[in-house]
Design goal:
Layout lengths: L1 H11 L12 H12 L10 H19 L12 H6 L9 H7 L10 H14 L3 H27 L2 H13 L4 H5 L4 H22 L3 H18 L8 H11 L6 H5 L2 H20 L12 H20 L8 E2 L14 H17 L3 H14 L11 E3 L8 H28 L5
Antiparallel strand pairs: 1-2
Length: 421
């Protein structure tokens, strides 16, 4: 009995010497902690270390994007949203009621308009504060990305890389440097906070679980009131369930019924508002169903390659013109390429939970913006990638963290097995 007991203690201490397990346990813990920043265990980092990392990310974003503080108003949507918008000039109860009752320029996003109204009350039409707030919101979004990815994966390196890609990617500049892009950085703030709260909800118990559930719902409503494209959050929540390896049950859908109901309500409102403003009938050329599929495939592939090579950026991507009554033959190849990419990913990488999560996160976010249902007169836009690119950045950063983990573990093993002189 005594021998068995000692043997069990020796196994627990991961030592070949059953009689001295305690001598090796501290060293083992130290080696795991030293490699944790590069591996799967991000919990070893102290709160002060996370704060230092987040401060560094914030400073980098500020240094790279502070030039936008010198920007002025543009003649592209800024007059309608700010300069000529009477709603932002009245913060009385009647003015607030008007802000939350009426759409502006074919969009219902009252919290975005309210943010303009607050700024107007301080500086009237001085553009610097509007740009400053947009930059601050973007930096906060970037820090939330770090928080979310680190919380989800416990990989600080993956969180750092994802946050830096999100904060500094050229495709995201439009949402920050253009005052009318405020709705992107604002809805992103509440959306990401809702994702973080949902992860805490999954890992909580008792009264805390109920509180996190309420928090997710409140943040979701705020995100919807900032930009209706936030309707995708219930799908993102299901993807988080998948990544967290929750057992599939219909109750997973049941707990998200309020979120799906809100998505339907705000989706209907968005369509009706767009229709009333004529935003769904702005194309000068009519495209049939097959052509819409071709154009959607073209947009999907374009977003993919611009994530890797952000070249040829433009504030307006016009629809292609027809030649002889039809699109160029190349456009019909894009949907085939998109289907091929998704099929190959499913066939060879469907067991890779990280890749599937990131790819589906991108697809869920970008699907509504591929102009299958035409809105506006642009076939794609840089700002449409603001949150959808998070999925692609997540995949890339995961493999970066894997690389650093391998290198770190190799170094640990090398020094551990060096002969002691």
């Amino acid at each position: 009995m005594a021998k068995n007991k000692n043997k069990q203690q020796g196994d627990t201490g991961h030592s070949n010497s059953p009689g001295k397990p305690q001598q090796h346990m501290p060293r083992q813990k130290k080696s795991v902690a030293s490699a944790s920043a590069f591996g799967a265990d991000g919990g070893a980092l102290k709160t002060s270390t996370h704060a230092f990392i987040m401060a560094g990310i914030a400073i980098l974003c500020w240094l790279f994007l502070r030039v936008c503080l010198n920007n002025q108003f543009t003649n592209w949507d800024d007059p309608g949203y700010i300069q000529d918008n009477t709603f932002i000039k009245d913060l009385s109860p009647a003015g607030l009621k008007a802000i939350f009752s009426a759409p502006v320029m074919g969009n219902y996003h009252p919290l975005t308009i309210l943010s303009y109204a607050i700024e107007y009350s301080f500086v009237r039409l001085e553009p610097w504060l509007y740009h400053f707030d947009s930059l601050v919101l973007h930096i906060l979004d970037t820090l939330l990305v770090y928080w979310f990815v680190n919380l989800l994966t416990r990989r600080p390196v993956a969180a750092i890389v994802t946050a830096l890609l999100f904060g500094l990617h050229p495709m995201h500049v439009e949402s920050v440097a253009w005052i009318s892009g405020r709705k992107d950085v604002l809805y992103g703030l509440f959306y990401l906070a809702a994702c973080i709260s949902y992860v805490y909800y999954l890992r909580a118990a008792g009264a805390k679980k109920r509180n996190w559930c309420i928090g997710v719902l409140v943040l979701y409503i705020c995100s919807l009131l900032s930009k209706p494209v936030a309707v995708t959050l219930p799908l993102t929540m299901l993807l988080i369930d998948y990544f967290e390896k929750r057992e599939w049950k219909y109750s997973l859908l049941g707990e998200k019924i309020p979120h799906f109901i809100l998505a339907v309500i705000f989706g209907i409102i968005a369509v009706k508002v767009q229709q009333s403003a004529g935003a769904m009938d702005m194309q000068k050329v009519h495209y049939n169903f097959i052509e819409r599929i071709a154009l959607g495939g073209y947009a999907f592939i374009t977003y993919l390659w611009k994530a890797v090579i952000p070249a040829g950026l433009c504030n307006f991507y016009a629809y292609p013109q027809k030649t002889g009554g039809s699109l160029h033959i190349l456009f019909y190849l894009y949907p085939l390429a998109a289907v091929a990419i998704v099929f190959l990913a499913w066939k060879y990488l469907r067991k890779n939970r990280t890749f599937v999560f990131g790819l589906l996160l991108f697809i869920a976010g970008i699907a509504l913006l591929l102009q299958f249902i035409p809105v506006g007169d642009a076939i794609l836009a840089d700002r449409y990638t603001y949150l959808p690119y998070l999925g692609l950045f997540f995949i890339a950063s995961w493999y970066v963290s894997e690389y650093f983990g391998i290198k770190k573990n190799m170094a640990v093993r090398f020094w551990r097995y060096q002969p002691h002189i």
